[in-house]
Amino acid sequence: MRGTRTTPLRLGASVLALAALLVSGSACASDEGDTPSGGSNAAAGGAIRAGLKVAFLPKQVNNPYFTVSDNGGKAAVAEFKGEYKEVGPSEASASSQVSYLNTLTQQGSDVIAVSANDPNAICGAVNQARQGGAKVVTFDSDTNKDCRDLFVNQVTGQGIAENQIKLISDAIGGEGKIAVLSATANATNQNAWIELMRTELKKPAYAKIELVTVVYGNDDDQKSFQETQGLLASYPDLKGIVSPTTVGVAAAARYLSTSQYKGKVALTGLGTPNQMREFVTDGTVRSFALWNPADLGYLAAYAGAALASGMISGKEGETFTAGKLGEYTIQADGVIVLGPPTVFDAANIGQFDF
Amino acid sequence: MTPDQTGRSGGRLSALGSWDVVVIVVLIAVIIGSSVLVEGFASPRFWGFLLLDVFPIALIALPMTLVVITGEIDLSVASVLGLSSAVMGQLWFLGLPLPLILPLVVLLGALLGAVNGLFVAGFGLPSLAVTIGTLALYRGLAYVVLGDRAVADFPFDWTGNAIAALPGTTVPWVSLVVGGLALAFGLVLHATPVGRSLYAMGNSDQAAVFAGISVARTKFWLFVLTGAVSALAGLFWTLRYASARADNGSGLELSVVAAVLLGGVSIFGGRGTLVGVVAGVLLLTTLRNALQLADVPADTLTVVTGTLLIISVVGPNLAGMLRARLRRRRPRASPVAG
User: Fold this and answer.
1) Predicted local distance difference test score (pLDDT) of residue B257
2) pLDDT for B175-223, tens place per residue?
3) How far is B334 from chain A (nearest CA, A)?
4) CATH number at residue B318
5) B125: pLDDT strictly greater than 70
6) Which of A153, A260, B33, B183 has the smallest CB count inside 10 Å?
7) Which residues neighbour B21 within 8 Å (Cβ) at sequence distance 6 or greater?
8) What is the pLDDT of residue B299?
9) Where are the alpha helices (DSSP H) in A80-212?
């Protein structure tokens, strides 16, 4: 029987190799806890310390959205003369960020701005990073509030709901049937927004607007396209569609722009200017909204730097200035809200590139 | 004497001898090189993190080695991990105590493995097809069990202890578990009749049957074992990340197969050693973490791992084929022969 010639020798070698690795792991375990030079000792209200090592850890690298927001962070870091870097996994899974957090901990980062793929999976690694002296700011997607120092929230659900209902109401003249094209049926944030929209619609100003159905495009371009087609077939008197997801709103716009409904059925939602530019130009869409992801990263960088410089400690009510964005106040649970969504229309869309 | 057969088997044997040595040498070279070149690599903390990262791949690679040596493959391992994690989360959510959940989940893993084993060994279906099917099926079931929810409120006693290091070191205690299991698997594979029969099956199922080996039964239990070990990895994964999710470990089967092949196990079966696989797992993970520490972007990491995998599949086979071809050519050179 070939292949079966074993080899106590080889077995022994492997055991040795393993043992060697274990030992090399355990050797001099005492030099742990390389604390980066101070920061938190600086007097409150001072200036941002120069030379801060700021790392951005997105949900996934090469994701256009995070590229824009991380570049916003990069601009901020350049302003306060820190060292910027972006690291991250190539796939957005729950645990994939942990080893990057570990790496950043070892490298002695002063500030880590992370958008969490999972609210819990990175908590242990975040805590180790904080013990190692880093300030951890989450942006876009939060962890458990006990893990991180601050969360920079792009927008509140209430802000989204008010904005979207106002935009669609303006687009259809305050009267008629509307539908929602969502992402997946179990997308937590989408469902929360849709509930808030229903509440918003109960206001007297929107009494003549009726939300007839919610359909799901699963954040898939083709499915969203077909669902839009289906909506218009099922509700011939539909006046408008709200699609609070970037994939959905672009697919719906593409369908409308090539159909008989162009200009007759209104569309709004959350989309990026680059996706939606042609549909605003050709009149399919009057206006849509999104927070500015570059501003989100910019604010996260300033918030982290303010923490690492000891200007703020993360308590509710503290204020700090985030460069060109102005002054922000820390709310309950260490949350900072970027602000209401930015509305894009024919007048201003030319100024944005993301 | 047919030059074909002797050529091939000779090629295989010599490739077997050399490849795992190559991997071990490369591993040592990577460790030494990185210690010099990458700041922070030669720190106990790095190895503590690395040994935690390596755990699930190393653990599942052990039974996978045996499966691949018999000429089969199990691509459902990561889905078994995910389903185990989801079931663990759901049972905890329903209020069962963890000491009861853990054995139940390992049992579930064994059952899932038994389904694979039944189709492969019982019905004689190709394991590639069967386990691609169960890869999708088990992952789907994981979503049925837990949806897109995450169960995360495991007691700190458990999540903390799962990643705890041995006193006075940064070596996670789970490394000892993997080390012990690796030793056990190595002994079974290389020093028992069972191990010998696995190689025999990998070379030829029929010959193994004629040699009196109960091929079907052995393969069945191998899949059961792989399922149980994958579930164990799922338990650890869940506690380590304190998050039971249906998508846990997705794509991990590829890392496991990559490590096994890199370790010199032939994808066609019948060839490979556990030493090589342990070295392969460590090489993949060490290289990955070292490059990450050196701020090499994730895409480059993927390219590097992909290249390594290609080399590991092509390398030994190419060497064997070349040797076989050289031997085959010699008699043909004479115009009389043939």
Assistant:
1) 93
2) 999 999 999 999 999 999 999 999 999 998 888 888 888 999 999 999 9
3) 30
4) 1.10.3470
5) yes
6) A260
7) none
8) 86
9) 98-107, 123-131, 157-172, 188-201
Q: Which amino acid is at B9?
A: S
Cα three-residue angle A300-A303-A305, rounded to 5 degrees = 105
Measured distance CA(B62)–CA(B57) in Å, rounded? 9
Closest chain B CA to residue A32: B45
Domain assignment present for residue A44? The answer is no
Task: Spell out the residues 6+ positions from residue B118 whose beta carbon is closer than 8 angstroms to its own.
Answer: B220
- Record the pTM: 0.78
Secondary structure (3-state) at A148: coil
* Helical spans, DSSP H, in chain A: 8-26, 64-79, 98-107, 123-131, 157-172, 188-201, 221-234, 246-257, 273-281, 293-308
Asked if A91 and A103 touch (Cβ cutoff 8 Å), the reply is no
Judge whether residue A346 has pLDDT over 60. yes
Asked, for residue A40, whether it belongs to a domain, the answer is no
Q: Which chain A positions have a beta carbon within 8 Å of B24's beta carbon?
A: 13-14, 17
Mean pLDDT of A162-174: 96
Same-domain pairing of A137 and A175: no
Give me the residue label for tokens 């869940």.
Answer: B238
Looking up residue A246, the CATH number of its domain turns out to be 3.40.50.2300
Q: What is the pLDDT of residue B314?
A: 80
Total number of domains in chain B: 1
Domain that holds residue A214: 157-290
Average pLDDT over residues A185-212: 92
Domain annotation covers residue B328: no
Provide the 8-state DSSP code for A30. G
Determine whether the interchain pair A4/B289 forms a contact, defined as Cβ–Cβ distance below 8 Å: no
The verdict on residue B109 lying in a domain is yes
Q: Which residue has the higher pLDDT, B331 or A194?
A: A194
Q: Is B250 left (phi over 0), alpha (psi -120 to 50) or beta?
A: beta
- Cβ proximity of B280 and B228 under 8 Å: no
Question: CA A181, CA A235: separation in Å to the nearest integer?
Answer: 14
pLDDT at B329: 66
If asked whether residues A194 and A77 sit together in one domain, one would say no
B200 to chain A nearest CA, in Å?
6
Q: Are residues A278 and A330 in the same domain?
A: no
- Rounded to an integer, the average pLDDT of A96-124 is 93
Report the pLDDT averaged over residues A319-338.
95
Task: Answer whether residue B13 is part of any domain.
Answer: yes
**Mean pLDDT to the nearest integer, B290-304:** 89
Average pLDDT estimate for B235-248 = 93
Domains in chain A: how many in total?
Answer: 2
Judge whether A292 and A339 are in contact, CB under 8 Å: no
Whether residue B59 contacts residue B277, with contact meaning beta carbons closer than 8 Å, is answered with no
Q: At what angle do helices B173-191 and B44-69 cross, to 10 degrees?
A: 30
Cβ distance of B241 and A94 shorter than 8 Å: yes
The reply to whether ipTM tops 0.90 is no
For residue A90, give the nearest of B245, B273, B299 by CB distance: B299
Candidate from B150, B186, B278 with C-beta closest to A118: B150
